[in-house]
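Hi F.,

I've been meaning to write this up properly since the lab meeting, where we talked about keeping a consistent format for the predictions we share between groups. The idea is simple: the sequence comes first, exactly as it goes in, then the C-alpha cells exactly as they come out, then a line or two of notes. No screenshots and no reformatting. I'm using this chain as the first example so we have something concrete to point to.
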Amino acid sequence: MNISYSIWPVIIIPYNFPPWICMKQPNFIISLLIPGRYAPGSDMDVFMEPLVDDMYDMFVHGVRTFDASKGEYFQLRAAILCTISDYPGLGYVAGCTTSGEGACIECHQFTRSLRLKKGSKTCYMGHRRFLHANHPFRFDADSFDGVVELESSPVPLSGKEILKQTEGMQTSFGKDPSGKKVTKKRKCKEGEPINIWKRRSIWFKLPYWKDLLLRHNLDVMHIEKNVCDNIINTLLGTDKKSKDNLNSRLDLQALGIRSDLHPIEVEDKFYLPPAPYSMTSEEKKLFCKVLNGVKFPDGYASDIRRNVQVNEKKIIGLKSHDNHVILQQLLPLAVRRILPENVSAALVRVSNFFKQIYSPVIRVSDMQKLEAEIAETICLLEKIFLPSFFTIMIHLMVHLPAQARIAGPVHFRNMYPGERNDEGLPMEVQSTTPFFRNIGRGLAGKYCVALDHKTWLQAHRYVLFNYDNIDPYLNKHIDYLSSTGLQNKHEIDRVHHETFHEWFRLHVTEMGDDEPEEIKILAKEPIMAANKYNSYTINGFNFHTQSYDEGRPVQSSGVSLMAETTCFERGNNDCRVVGNKIYYGIIKEIIELNYSNRGNIVLFKCDWVDNRIQDKWVRTDQFGITTVNFKHLFNTGDNISDEPFILASQAIQVYYVQDPVDTEWFAVRQSKPRDLYNMSETEKDDLGNDTEVSIILPDVHPNSTMNISVEETVFVRTDIDGIIVEANKPKTKNNGKGKRKV
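Output, unedited:
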C-alpha cells in the first residue's frame, strides 16, 4: 500500500541534563504533531502558535514548581535556544526561502547563485570571497570563473535586521484543498535586492528571540548525506544522479570556462573529455570493491556491503549513517589509489572536515582555523568539479564552523538523536578497589581454563608494570639491581623486566600490613585458573576475539594502543630514549585473571604488527592514512619475555580495510565509542553518578596535515579516455491537446 501522507513531530529537548542522557529519546518532549498530506509551509506558524504562547509564558512568568531535594517551591522558567530541522524544514520554521537564487539563510540577499539553463538547476559557487584578503586563489581568475575576487564574505543577519526586513509583511495562511498554490512567486527585477523572507516567523513573539546569536541550526546530518551522495554519484557516473553529464558540460561551455572539458560534437553524438575525477570502468569497480570488502565493528555501522553492486558499479540505498561512515572513513581509502593526488587530497580534506566538525570537544581557535580551511577546500573543489556539482548543501559546509563556534558540538544540534534509539548495555561495576574495579562485562563464550606458566607470567607481569601506583616499587627494584654491579642501563632494564614480579612478592610480604590493600592483592599473584571470553564490552566498544569474528558480518577484533616505550641509542647501552608509540594488533584471546578471589583484571592477548622500524611495516602516507602489514608480527607471546597482553581498559578499537591494490596491506580506521564522556572528578561528584567512569581515550589515528600543494590542479586526466554520449532529446510538454516540443 502506498499512502502519500506525512506527520511532522515537534520535539523539545531539555538541555540541562548530563550529556550522556541529554539527547536520549526518553527525555524528549513531544509538544506537537503536525499532520497533513502536504508540507505545512507558511502554515507552520499556525501549528506552532500554542507552543510559542506556552514558551512565552514559561519565560516571562514561569511555573511554580516543587524542588524535592530542597523541599521548597521555586519559579521554573524555560527558553528556546534554537531550532533543529533539515534544510527545507528550516525554511518553514524561519519563514525564508531555501532554494533558488537566495537559498542560503546565512548569506541571505548576498547569496552567490547561478542558474544553469541546460541543466535547469541553480548552483552556488563564488567561495573565494570566504578566503582571507591576500589568498592567491582570489587573484587566480583562469582557474575559476575568469574574474578576480575582491568581495568579502557576507555577515549573517541579526535578529533586529530580520525584524526590520520583515516589517509590515502580510501572510496568507491556509491552502487550496485541491493542492494548488494560492499565489505565484514574484520574480525580482534586475538590480533589485533578493528578498529571502516569506513572512515574519512566529518565534519573534518571544522577547529574547531577536537577541539570539544562532536561531536556526544547519543540520550537519543531512548536509553530510547530500555531500556524500554528490561525490559518490559523480565519481561513479550514476545515471540521473551524477553531476557530470552532457547538460553540465553544455552549461560549462555556455559560461566560457574550463575549455578543456567542453563537449565535442561527433555527428549526432558528443564526446566528453575526461574530467580530473573521471574513472575508467575498472577503476570504478576498484572503488566499489573497497566499500564491498569492509566489515565494521559490532554496533558501529550497518553492513553496507549489501548496498554495493561491484559489477554494476553502483552504490544504492544508503542511509544517513551509511553516508556518515563512508564519507569520514572509507572515501579517502577508495580514492587515494585511483584518482590524481590533488583530486584525492581535496576529497580527503572534505572527509577530515566532517571528522573535525563532529568532534565532541571543540575549541574556538580550532573552529576559526577550520572555517578558513573549508573555504579553501571548497575553492579546490571549484577548480576540480563542474558548476552543477555545487548544490546548496555543498555551499552550506562553509557556514558550519561558525555555527559550532556559537552553539558548541554538533552532537547536541543535529537530527541523529531524533531518528535513533540506543539504550546501550549496562556495565558491570564490581570489585573492592579502584584498580580492580571492573567497568566492562563479558558478552559471550565465558569458560574457565588453566593457564600455562608462560601465559600466566606474561599476563601478571603486564598487570604489575601498568598498575598506576607501582612506580615507587619499580624505582626500589632498579636501585637494588644497580647496587648488585650490573654493567649498564640496558642490562638493568632486562633483568628488571624478568625478575621484578618475584622481588615485588617477597618485598611486600616482608613489609607486612603497612602496604596498601591493592599492593597486597597484587603481591599474592593471580591463580592459574582464569576465565576466557569470546566477546567483551568496555569503554563503549564491543570487542571480539579473531576466531569469534570469523564467519560474522562484523570485525571487532582490531585493537590499538598508545604506549610509552623505552629504547637505547645504537651503540650506547646507557643512553635511554623514552617516547610514545602506537601499536596495532588483533585480539587472539580475552582473559580474566583472578587475584585470590579479591579482584579480577581483564586482559586482551593480541598479535601485534612489528613497528620497531619506522615506516617499514606500519606507515603513514601523504594523506595521513596509516597502513599496516600483518605478515610481520612481534610480541606474539612465543618467548617468555614477550608482551602480548594489554589491559582491556587501555584498548582502543580499530578496524582494518584491505588495500585494493597491495592486498598485504590494511588501512587502519578508528571506531568511536558510544556514550563515553570524559568528565572531571568534581563534575562526577556533583552529578552523583557513582557508576560513570572518567576515561581518556586518545585519538590513535589523528588527522595529519597533508603536504600537498593547493596551487597545482589537474583539470583533465590525460591517462584515460573520455566517453561518447547521445545528444539530448528535446523535452515535450502536454498542453492538453497533444504534445509539443519545448
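Notes:
Residues 489-511 form the longest helix (23 residues).
The first strand starts at residue 6 and ends at 12.

If this format works for you, I'll send the rest the same way.

G.
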